[in-house]
Amino acid sequence: MTRFRAFVDRHLDEVLADLAAFVELESPTTDKAAVDRAGRYLATRLREAAGAEIVWHPQAAWGDHLEARVGSGPRRILLLGHVDTVWPVGTLERIPCRIDGDRMTGPGCFDMKYGDIQAVWALRAVVESGLAADKTFVYFGNTEEEVGSPTSRPIIERLARESECVLVLEPSVGEEGAIKLWRKGVGMYRLTVRGVASHAGADPEKGRSAILELAHQIVDLHAIADPERGTTVNVGIVRGGTRPNVVAAEAVAEIDLRVRTADEARRADTRIRTRPTFVAGTTVHVDGGLNRPPMEETPASRRLYELAKRLAANEGVDLPAGGTGGGSDGNFTAALGVPTLDGLGAVGDGGHAEHEHIRLSAVAPRLAWFTRLLVEL
Ligand SMILES: [Zn+2]
Q: How far is the CA of 167 from the centre of ligand 1 (A)?
């Protein structure tokens, strides 16, 4: 058994108790008081466990972002987490934090409170080992990741520029706990059509139907997709009209775009924004844009993955590489050209879904190799 695995095995009950306590501090993005309570807990644990120096980034509308520094070496490594979840306060009554066989359930346990707690314990193990004196680890706990990181993005980008690599503790993908070497970029748009209202029976020729125009728009928008290149377009919400006997004066669609490459991001974004019109007398307006750029695999991120894979093998873990259509803060750091590995956190399933859980048998080996990665990077 390796020294890191021995450390984890000695403390496994404490790690799980720590995780349960953190999950039970429910922290939906939109509830500042609740997110702040969870953030304070995490800060206290980082201080107690790893002697972290805490810097708060106070926010008026969102929870205060947490920056924790461990060590004082010249090489800087950024660990990215988030404290918020998509689950409203009270979800615990329906989905309690509970151990059932090889599973632990609870709102946000997989996405991504386990990852945050993994950072706490790995940093403690690193500090106790005395083996990483050449590095400073900066953990950043975002409080509004689930709504697209409106206020944390510039902080994350600054911290990433100061770091030689970024390790994102978001959940892994698939049964084997694969690393995310790529993530799709995400675009969010709202398309508004204005037409001319008229009586559908008495004056149909005077009307210009915004709904008919929107129907053409939806077909045209979906045609921008190129699944082979990983580009998808989804019109997920439509609204419009007032009554069946009125030609609709207004209609609105909300659009989700996903892209794997920067080239596709440019192509699809341009086409979504430059709309043709199909029904004479209507006008079309598009708001929004790319919220997260795609995280593309690079030679440097591949090398980082190969190192992680080798170290994981030493801890008895087979570590595949994968990717996902979902975005994270890793998209921002990768787009700056800073080598980024994502999906280093929980093994399990059900992010943002009722069956959210982590796999307990994966905790000890994963925590051990992640610690080793921090030491040997
Ligand atoms: Zn997440």
A: 13
The CATH number linked to 243 is 3.30.70.360
pLDDT of 35 above 90: yes
For ligand 1, the distance from its centroid to the CA atom of residue 237, given in whole angstroms, is: 23
- Cα 145 to ligand 1 centre (Å): 7
Residues 223 and 264 in one domain: yes
In the predicted model, what is the mean pLDDT of residues 152-165?
Answer: 98
Q: Cβ distance 188 to 256 under 8 Å?
A: yes
Residue at which a domain ends, from 230, 264, 292: 292
Q: Which helix (H) or strand (E) holds 79?
A: strand 75-82
Distances (CA, A) of 95 to 64, 108, 321: 26, 10, 31
Q: Which domain holds residue 35?
A: 3-183+295-376
188-213 burial code (b ≥16 CB/10 A, e <16): bbebbbbbebbeeeeeeeebbbbbbb
Task: Indicate the average pLDDT of the chain.
Answer: 97
Q: For residues 323 and 174, what is the distance between their CA atoms, to the nearest angstrom?
A: 10
> 281 and 366, same structural domain?
no
Ligand 1 center to 218 CA (angstroms): 30
pLDDT value, residue 1 = 78
Cα(86) to ligand 1 centroid in Å equals 9
Answer yes or no: is pLDDT of 204 > 90. Answer: yes
Q: 0.85 cut: is pTM over it?
A: yes
Omega into 104 within 30° of 0, i.e. cis? no
Residue 39: what pLDDT?
98
- The answer on pLDDT for 128 being more than 90 is yes
Handedness of CA 201, 205, 207, 213 (dihedral sign): positive
Does position 49 have pLDDT exceeding 90, yes or no?
Answer: yes
Domain boundary among 259, 292, 325: 292
